[in-house]
Amino acid sequence: MLDSIALESGRPRRGRGEESLAEQLRQTRALLERLVDSTPDAVVACDGRGRVLLFNAAAERLTGRSAREALASLDAQSLFPPAVVAGLLARLHAEGSGGRVSGAAGEVLTGQGERVPVSISAAVVGEEPGEGVWVAVLEDLRERLSIENRLTSAEQKLRESEKQVVVAELAGAAAHELNQPLTSVLGYAELLRRRTATSDPSFRPIDRIFHEAERMAEIVRKIGRITRYETTPYVGNVRIVDIDKATGRKAGDE
């Protein structure tokens, strides 16, 4: 009866098996769409001419563009910097790549023109190289890079802190070791200076030795007060510890 009605109406009707298969396909497609939309990473698909065919919810959050806008007017050249697209397609179609790329560094452009660093994993879907659809999964790297930058900064501060400790300890040891022989030099220079008449030709060099030894003693005292690592240019690319800055004093301060 149903068959005769279908023939009389001129519209063939699906059998129960066909309707069941169509329903299964519909459910499978709906499930896949939900899976793609629920993934935390952006998923974008483009055809061979670069037109956007798929744009999930994570892609909307990443780029600040709506899926409707992307499907209506967006293409790969507007979504990625040109160099990123060219490099990605070259790798996808390179011999031996298998039409796949994993973890490529790149950038995606937001609706406001901001460049967001991403990790791109992509694959070509289709039989004809250069004509098939390609799908890209984009991982937002901003948080990871921010963490890496903070870790690098913390490591740098730790190295600087360790350097401060080493410099302070070395300065203290050097001041201690230099102070004893320098005290002897000053003592003997002062003794000779007192025993030599100012009219004696030897007085001037003895007096010079005494004053230079005093100057050295002041430098040693500064070295003993070093508490942090501060450098100053010396010759060429060489840098040396700036004793005045390292002691927290300005040149000429007592």
Could you give a quick summary of the protein structure above?
The chain has 254 residues and is α+β, with helices and mostly antiparallel strands. Helix content is 55%, strand content 17%. The longest helix is centred in the middle third of the chain and has 54 residues, at 142-195.
Poorly predicted parts: 1-11
Class per helix and strand makeup: alpha+beta
Give the strand content: 15-25%
Oligomer: single chain
Strand line-up in the sheet with most strands: 2-1-5-4-3
Compute the gyration radius: what is it? 39 Å
Overall shape: it is rod-shaped
Mean pLDDT: 80
Question: In which range does the helix fraction lie?
Answer: 55-70%
**What name is given to the CATH topology of the largest domain?**
Beta-Lactamase
Please give the number of β-strands: 7
Question: Which CATH architecture of the largest domain would you pick?
Answer: 2-Layer Sandwich
So what's the CATH class of the largest domain? Alpha Beta
CATH-defined superfamily of the largest domain: PAS domain
- Discrete helix count: 9
Instruction: Give the SSE string.
Output: HHEEHHHHEEEHHEEH
Largest sheet: 5 strands, antiparallel
Distance between the termini: 115 Å
Overall domain count:
2
Structure write-up:
- Helices cover 55% and strands 17% of the residues.
- With 254 residues, the chain is an alpha+beta fold.
- The relative contact order is 0.07.
- Mean pLDDT is 80; it is low at 1-11.
- Helix 7 packs antiparallel against helix 8.
- It folds into 2 domains: 39-140, 2-Layer Sandwich (Beta-Lactamase); 146-246, Helix Hairpins, CATH 1.10.287.
- A 5-stranded antiparallel β-sheet has the order 2-1-5-4-3. Strands 6-7 form a two-stranded antiparallel ribbon.
